[in-house]
Amino acid sequence: MIKAENLTKKYDEFTAVDSINFEVEKGEIFAFLGPNGAGKTTTIKMLTTLTKPTSGTVQLNGFNPVESPDDARKSFGIVFQDQSLDDELTAWENMEFHGVLYGVEKKLRRERIEQLMKFVELWDRKNDLVKTFSGGMKRRLEIARGLLHHPKIFFLDEPTLGLDPQTRNHMWEYIKKLRQEEGTTIFFTTHYMEEAEKNSDRIAIIDHGKIVARGTAGELKQQTSTDSLEAAFLSLTGKDIRDEHATGADHMRMRRRMWHR
Amino acid sequence: MQTIYILWLRQLKRYSRSRARIIGSLAQPLLFLVALGFGFGPIYQKAGGGNYIQFLAPGIIGMSVLFTAVFTGIEIIWDRQFGFLKETMVAPVTRLKIMFGRTLGGATVATIQGVVVFLLSLIAGFRPVSWLGLFPAMLVMFLTALLFTALGTAIASTLDDMQGFQLIMNFVIMPVFFLSGALFPLDGLPPVIMLVARFDPLSYGIDGLRWALIGLTHFGFGQDLAILTAVTAVLLAVGSYLFSKIEI
Ligand SMILES: Nc1ncnc2c1ncn2[C@@H]1O[C@H](COP(=O)(O)OP(=O)(O)OP(=O)(O)O)[C@@H](O)[C@H]1O
Ligand SMILES: [Mg+2]
């Protein structure tokens, strides 16, 4: 369903993603893990037509995002790592806007909006401007919005960042149900190792733009002779904190993340 | 069609919700109208030009259309900064449609703004020669608005932070405004200024407004419309192209 070959992204001299290869099967839940600045978001951006690879190719549901971006875009949905809501619109308007852009037919759209907004417990705030929401509430709305159209492939870039455990579990239940009913393929990143272990079929670990390991959680633990995914992760990526080449936005993100924890 | 509508609607909602922006964008034309209109009025009259407010009002209407249009065009920079642009960029809608919906929305907002300034100018003493002139005037406002929203979008597509905003203000909006004949008649100008004014699309917008509202024209209404339409088409094409090249 997703296939990357020698995928590379350079920003000037700096190589953010360095010739990575991977394949994700239809209906698979694939976790893409790595320390801060490893290149996860950059990879997702290349997969989702937001930025062009410096070299290498991507196949997404059979389409190449560079050559046929519109077909590629019809194949996926995404929850971004950073906020992507319109603050000046209400929660409901953000949902409606998304539904119309994704061509969800009106009756179904209205039903799903209500169902999803109840699901993330924002239905009673539906007419409030998003700028009056807390960070966690915005996050919940982003997830609800991402689930509104049922795409073939779902990208989730740290979807549970700053969410309480209730909402996190809820979200995963919903996603797994979706996969069961519609065979959705899921590609996600997270920094919570239990979450990756619990919810993924396979894992790839990226560090400094290169994939350093791949396999099921069990296989990764075996490869590194450790007894938890966290230990395996640390043994594969080292213990030093990453701050190489951080951009302003990254700093803000870091700050936001610290805030929420 | 629905996607263009929802993008258009978003632009209108954002506009109607930002009271500060509405008030600010109305205060400025009013200030120009009062300060320049009454300040230069006596001199203009003595020089044989007639009533300056009559002459100035279409220019100020054009100015507010220009400002609002460029501003809604470059709102893309904000959308990029606040992340919302990503949401529209990954949607399964051609970027041409996105650009089109936004631009129509921006142009509608700018036209509304132009009409409101027209109403304000009535308070300042402006009287159109015929009320029917309001219809061609609105057509000109809308064309001018489309043109400058597309220009704003085109420029903003190539910038990735707020710093560009000041640059656009100083090197695009201000010269376009001051060299357009909004404040002075285009007849009998020094050749250099005249040449510049001829290349300034706002000149045709304001000339068209003057024709519609006070029956005066320099280029002729037909030429005004033709040039506005042609430039708008070109800028829409360029804007769509640049917009489709945006990477985040
Ligand atoms: N637009 C850009 N210009 C220059 N460098 C960039 C740009 N975007 C990302 N980078 C750099 O590319 C590297 C990878 O960034 P990326 O956002 O993909 O990391 P990540 O794995 O998603 O990290 P995190 O866990 O912090 O989200 C970082 O070093 C980052 O500074
Ligand atoms: Mg990231």
Descriptive labels:
heterodimer; A: 261 residues; alpha/beta; Rossmann fold; 6-stranded mixed beta sheet; 3-stranded antiparallel beta sheet; 41% helix; 22% strand; globular; B: 248 residues; mainly alpha; 10 helices; 0% strand; binds adenosine-5'-triphosphate; binds magnesium ion
Shape of chain A: globular
Poorly predicted ranges of chain A: 251-261
Low-confidence stretches of chain B: none
| CATH-scheme architecture of chain A | 3-Layer(aba) Sandwich
Enter the CATH topology name of chain A: Rossmann fold
What value does the average pLDDT of chain B take?
91
What small molecules does this complex bind?
Answer: adenosine-5'-triphosphate, magnesium ion
Strand coverage percent of chain A: 15-25%
The name of the CATH superfamily of chain A reads P-loop containing nucleotide triphosphate hydrolases
Instruction: Kindly state the percentage of residues in helix of chain A.
Output: 40-55%
Which secondary-structure class do the elements of chain B indicate?
Answer: mainly alpha
Number of domains of chain B: 1
Average predicted local confidence, pLDDT of chain A: 89
Rg of chain A, Cα atoms, Å: 18 Å
Indicate how many domains the architecture of chain A comprises: 1
User: What Rg of chain B is obtained from the alpha carbons, in whole angstroms?
Assistant: 18 Å
Strand order of the largest sheet of chain A: 5-6-7-3-8-9
Q: Categorize the overall geometry of chain B.
A: globular
* Number of DSSP E strands of chain B: 0
